[in-house]
Amino acid sequence: MKRRDLLKGSLAAGALALMPRVQAQGAPQNQPGLGRRYRNLIVYVYDGFGWEDYAIAQAYARRRLGRTLALERLLARYPNGLINTYSLTSYVTESSAAGNALSTGVKTVNGGVAVHADGSPLRPFFAAAKEAGKAVGLVTTTTITHATPASFAVSNPDRNAEAQIAEQYLAFGAEVYLGGGDRFFNPERRQDRKDLYAAFAQAGYGVVRTPEELARSNASKLLGVFSEGHVPYEIDRRFQGVRVPSLKEMVQAALPRLAAHRNGFVLQVEAGRIDHANHLNDAAATLWDTLAADEALEALTAFVDRHPDTLLILVSDHACGTGALYGTGRSYLESSLGIDLLERERASFEFMGRALGGSPDAAQVKETFRALKGVALTDEEAERVVRAVRERVFWPEGVRFGIQPANTMAWAMAQRDARRPDRPNIGWNSGQHTATPVILLLYGQGLRFLQLGLLDNTHVFRLMGEALGIRYQNPVMSEEEALEILKARPVGMRHPEDVWA
Ligand SMILES: [Zn+2]
Fold first, then answer.
1. Predicted local distance difference test score (pLDDT) of residue 499
2. What is the DSSP letter of 342?
3. Together in a domain, 248 and 390
4. Could you tell me if residue 1 is inside a domain?
5. CATH no. for residue 311?
6. Quick one: signal sequence residues (predicted)?
7. What range defines the domain where residue 143 resides?
8. Three-state secondary-structure class, residue 35
9. What is the pLDDT of residues 244-269, one digit of tens each?
10. What is the pLDDT of residue 490?
11. Does residue 95 have an active-site annotation?
12. Can you give the pLDDT at residue 7?
C-alpha cells in the first residue's frame, strides 16, 4: 500500500491531513463553515495580489479617482480573512500549486496543474461541479490555458503544456472560456497545426477574437481568445488604445450565459496580470490591473445582489514583488505625493519594450520614459536601460532578481531622494513571489456573522464544497514523499512565470 493511501485512510478516520512541518508541529487550524448552500459559485482570483498592492490602489482610488474601491467597501462589511499560501514543498508557492490548493483542497509541489508530484491526477472542483450538473465558466486576463484557470478544470503534470491544455478544455466542455492565448488555438501557431478554433466551433461554441465580436455574439457557449499570449495590461488598453476587452466586459459576457442554466453554475474569474506586473516591478501596470479588477468586482457583486443564491469567493493566490509605498519626506509628509506621480504613467514596461525595439539609443529611452512613465531619466539611467534592452545587462550590478529588461527599467525609475519625490515612491526588493498571507473575502447572502480569521488556502476548497453541497477528498501526499520524487527528476522546473511578452 502506498503511503498516500495510508494517509487517505487516516483522513477518513478523521485525523488531520499531514501537512508541511509547520502544521505537523501544531499550527492552529481554523475551519469556519458557511452554514448554508448556494446555487451558483463565483471564485474570483486576484493573482499575485498582496496587501501592499491593495494599499496603493486604495490610496490612488481615493486620492486621484475620488472614490473608494469596491474591494475596500467589501472589506469593511463582509467576512474576510487571510490564507496561508505555501505549497507542499516550499513556503513560496507559484500559481499552479496555489491554484491546486484552492481547487483540489490538497497541497502539491510547484509546477503541475491538479496533479501530485508523481503525476497522479487530482480531481479539480469545477470538474466535480460539472458532473453535478453545473455550467462552468473560466474568464481571465492571462492565456485562458494558464495555471490558475486550468487548475480548476483539468489535470496536467506541466503547467506550461498550454497547447495540450487547450485540447483538454475542448474535451472538458465548459460553457464559457474567455482570455488570451491565440498561439495555443491557432493552427498557424500551434506546432501540430491543429485548428482548435474550428474544433470548438464544431462543438457548438461561438468563437470570438475581438471586443466587437464579443459584444455582438449571441452564442450560448463561448470561446473568446483576444490576444496572442496574455491579454495586454489594462494600462495599455486604457491609455494606448490596445484593442482587447476589459476584464469587466468579459465578466459581463460570461454571467448571463452561465445564469441561463437551470442547475446553476460555477465561474472562475482571474485578474491574472497583477502578478505579471509585479514580476516586472511595474507599479503602474499593477495599479491599473488592480483598478480594472475592481471594476469587474462591481459587476460581480451587482450580479450577486440580483441573484442572492450566488456565493462570491474573492481570493489571492499569493503576493509577488512586492512593490510597497514607502514613507517619503519629513514626517513622511511627501508620501502621498508619490502616489499622485503614478498618474503620469500611461503604459506598461511591456508596451514600452515593444516601442523601443531591440536596439534603442539613450535619447529614445529618455523620450519613451518621459512620454509613457512621466519620468525624466538621467543620462546614466537611460544608458543602463539601453544596455538592459540590448544585452540584458543587469543594473544595479550583481543584483539578478527578475526578468530583463523590465527590472532594470524599474530600477531606473526608483526613488533616489527620499526627501523630495519626483517619481512614485514605490520600492521593490525582488521580482519573485513571496510567502505573505493574502486576502480571502466572501460576498453573498447569510454570511454577516461569519468569522474567517487566518486559514489555509486548502480551506477554500472546503468552502466551495459546502456552498454547493459537493464533498469529496483528494489524496494527500506528504512533503517527504514529494521531495523524494522531485530529487529523482533529471531537470528542475522551468521558470514558472513567462511574463515578458
Ligand atoms: Zn507569478
1. 58
2. G
3. no
4. no
5. 3.40.720.10
6. 1-24
7. 29-322+434-479
8. coil
9. 999 999 999 999 999 999 999 999 99
10. 63
11. yes
12. 42
Residue 429: DSSP 8-state:
S
Structural domain count of the chain = 2
Per-residue pLDDT at 165: 98
Separation of 98 CA from ligand 1 center, angstroms? Answer: 10
461 neighbors 102 (Cβ within 8 angstroms): yes
Closest CA to 422 of 371, 375, 378: 375
Question: Which of 87, 95, 155, 348 is an active site residue?
Answer: 95
In this structure, the answer to whether residues 269 and 344 fall within a common structural domain is no
In this prediction, residue 75 carries a pLDDT of 97
For residue 227, the model assigns a pLDDT of: 98
Give the residue carrying C-alpha cell 489524496. Answer: 475
Long-range Cβ contact pairs of 183-191 (< 8 A, separation 24 or more): 183/228, 183/229, 184/143, 184/145, 185/223, 185/225, 189/228, 190/163, 191/163
Q: Which three cell numbers mark 91?
A: 513556503
Q: What grid cell was written down for 256?
A: 448571463
The whole-angstrom separation of Cα 287 and Cα 437 is: 20
> Is 495 labelled a binding residue?
no
285 CA to centre of ligand 1 in angstroms: 14
For residue 449, the model assigns a pLDDT of 86
pLDDT-flagged residues of the chain (< 70) = 1-27, 398-402, 490-501
Residue 352 and residue 306 in one domain: no
CA of 116 to the centre of ligand 1 (A): 20
Q: Please tell me whether 433 is known to bind a ligand.
A: yes
Check the annotation: does 47 bind a ligand: yes
Give the dihedral sign, CA 60/63/67/70: positive
Shared domain for 421 and 443, answered yes or no, is no
Which residues place a Cβ less than 5 A from the ion ligand 1?
A: 48, 275, 497
Q: What pLDDT, on a 0 to 100 scale, did the predictor assign at position 45?
A: 98
pLDDT of residue 17: 45
259 C-alpha to ligand 1 centroid (Å): 31
Query: 3-state class of 269 per DSSP?
Result: strand
